[in-house]
Amino acid sequence: MTQSTQPKQHRKFIAIILAAAMAITGASSGPARAGDDFGKVVAGLAVLGILGAAIHDHNTRDRRETVTRPHRPRPGHPQPRPLPPRVGRYDLPAQCVKYFPNFRNGRSLVARGCLNRNYDYVRSLPQSCKVTFWNGRKNRTAYKPRCLNKHGYRLVNR
Q1: Which phi and psi (to 5°) does residue 31 adopt?
Q2: Confidence (pLDDT) at 82
Q3: Among 106, 151, 95, 156, which residue's Cα sits nearest to residue 133?
Q4: Does residue 83 sit in helix, strand or coil?
Q5: Could you tell me what percent of the chain has a pLDDT over 70?
Q6: CA 110, 126, 145: angle at the middle one, nearest 5?
Q7: How much is the mean pLDDT over the chain?
Q8: How many CB atoms lie within 10 A of CB 124?
């Protein structure tokens, strides 16, 4: 079934709760008597048991209908190729985003040393995104992630 024709599961649950509440309300509208307490407790436990069984059945049914298989490419089908260098050069390694507490009250920047180790096109990064700041021991150079994003670069996990 598609998502649009399948009824929402939370609506079914609300309908069951509403029906049970109406049934209990109708049964308990009579005058209260001391002898009926045991019957009411048994009826309440039966309703709770039925609801619990329905929820359990619903949860196990969802797990039984889910089929997962590892992806094995079929022979004869083309394999996805890596991005060409002119496109892949805009993918920056996300592990190079570091927290620098001494830069403007603590900001995350893309560290230049990490980029030198993990990215081949550091020299082509926009100079307008480059910042140099004092970290207490020496000058550090990094790049602003938001600025790089505006210039078309994106941070990806590899």
Answers
A1: -65, 145
A2: 66
A3: 106
A4: coil
A5: 70
A6: 30
A7: 76
A8: 10
Centre a 10 Å sphere on the Cβ of residue 1 and count the other Cβ atoms it contains. 6
Closest by CA position to 96, among listed 133, 151, 147, 144: 144
Tokens representing residue 64 in the block: 């039984």
Give the integer Cα–Cα distance in Å for 10 and 17: 11
Nearest to 114 by CA among 149, 90, 142, 156: 142
Distance CA(38)–CA(44), nearest Å, equals 10
Q: What is the pLDDT of residues 35-48, one digit of tens each?
A: 567 777 778 878 88
Please calculate the CA angle 53-9-28 and round it to the nearest 5 degrees: 55
With contact defined as beta carbons under 8 Å apart, do 89 and 120 qualify? yes
Rounded CA gap, 51 and 16, in Å?
A: 8
C-alpha distances (whole Å) from 94 to each of 71, 125, 149, 158 are 26, 15, 12, 8
